[in-house]
Amino acid sequence: MYSTAIKDNFYQYIQKLQDTITNSIEAIDGKAKFHQDLWDRPEGGGGRTRIIENGNVIEKGGVNISSVHGKLPESMQKYFGVTDANFYACGLSLVLHPINPMAPTVHANWRYFEMYDQKGNIVDRWFGGGQDLTPYYLFEEDATHFHNICKTACDKHDATFYNTYKAKCDDYFWNTHRDEARGIGGIFFDYCKITDKMSMQNWLDFVTEIGDSFLNSYTPILEKRKHMPYTDDQKKWQEIRRGRYVEFNLVHDKGTLFGLKTNGRIESILMSLPPKVQWVYNFEPKADSEEQKLINILKQPKQWATL
Amino acid sequence: MYSTAIKDNFYQYIQKLQDTITNSIEAIDGKAKFHQDLWDRPEGGGGRTRIIENGNVIEKGGVNISSVHGKLPESMQKYFGVTDANFYACGLSLVLHPINPMAPTVHANWRYFEMYDQKGNIVDRWFGGGQDLTPYYLFEEDATHFHNICKTACDKHDATFYNTYKAKCDDYFWNTHRDEARGIGGIFFDYCKITDKMSMQNWLDFVTEIGDSFLNSYTPILEKRKHMPYTDDQKKWQEIRRGRYVEFNLVHDKGTLFGLKTNGRIESILMSLPPKVQWVYNFEPKADSEEQKLINILKQPKQWATL
Fold this sequence. Notes:
Two copies of one chain form a homodimer. The first copy, chain A, is an alpha+beta fold. Chain A has one domain: Coproporphyrinogen III oxidase, aerobic (oxygen-dependent coproporphyrinogen oxidase). The first copy, chain A, has a seven-stranded antiparallel sheet. In chain A, strand 5 and strand 6 form a beta hairpin. Chains A and B meet through helix 6, helix 7 and strand 10 of A and helix 6, helix 7 and strand 10 of B.
């Protein structure tokens, strides 16, 4: 048998990280508590979904972990070009939608995947994940702060990672049919496998470094924006922009679609959808407005890190 | 050259029908007027989008026609298994989202498609379309009325049409990942081509009969429900159910996805999305409530026509 050290360590890590993150968000919110749902996957494994709603600061959010295993679903066998494979996957996924339109939505996901042949030998394994920010009003200092934290964490492991994963993030979160980015990006990495430079232990160290950096990347922004004054029109703008978030997740996001089409736990998958959303026909911000300034940035992703 | 009578007649028909429907809906609303946008398709043709928002009765709706032609987009060539084909397509699409949660959302679409070889010969052509109702509270008399009108129109052309197209509708508007219907159905037909019994003229007569029946199928229901009293909780339920409508249209609806992936006019395609929508984690109605009664029906489509 192969060593289960990587998978065991990573699963322990995300369990602890879920606690750390939910405790921190509850402290910032000051009112709402996460509600926990434990669920089982009939085919093997399960998850711990934690949802927060109607807080002082967070309108809706989820910080979920899952650890699932069994026969690789047929659609995934096709996708990976394998037959008769088994798998193990675990990960932490989070999305936080603040009430205040001056505070950005954040998404993060860190995950590990193993694939086995019929004898139980590992035939492939990799890490993936990332985090990205979706502001409704652009504060350049926030974008820079978020990217600088991502870059600092990446740089400890490889000087090329940040630029590579920043570009992948801009690429992945592109809302094709709107011809604009979902947000101002962050980092996105996938299929992180053994190379000359990186052992699986090195990748584990990298991914946990990124996970550890998450709260520093987001909570100072949330603290700064959570009580800023805003108007009804600014709230409406946030709800319209949340519509773009829904469009991305339901039309383009591979993880969401995969979950929906393979009988995943729907309410855990769709916890990513914002609480209140508007679709207004052909809404266009005024020229030179703060709203238009955001659109301009989303049409043309830029470099934010200053380190 | 082939005769253009069918396509010309149908396009004239939908132009007039758009006027008839928008006039009737404006009269029922009593406040809001449709706003018209004419648009050109760079590759050939264009459309006339008419949107109504923030009325007395209609919260948001669109009644759109388009008439487009040119080289068949590559994704459609693949879909139909042809190469180097040209096409012509025209149709009317409508969605109306009333304010009052007691009034159902309605969707309808009637369309005609021709495909040509490089010499300009028609190689294939067909009609398609249908209409379906999405209530938030179930009034059985409304469901029966809607289906009876559909059945009466179908029965004038073929005694088997209603049952066939009712079943196709239930099948098409199935929200797989929720394991429930989008609404209480109606009729849905596609690839209506020449048969022993039906010439293209017969199909034209059928589709225009269905189109003519639309206002009778929906407006009596809208009139009956538009001023019914409702609570904040009932409005919230409507907004949550509208979330399922968004999920269906963005995840499963072939027409919407085709439009988004082939560079259609986004704002005309997404006019179908409801104005205000909520996603509440794991919302479950009380047992024996009116809300649960709706869910039960959506899980198990039934026969509504009584004629």
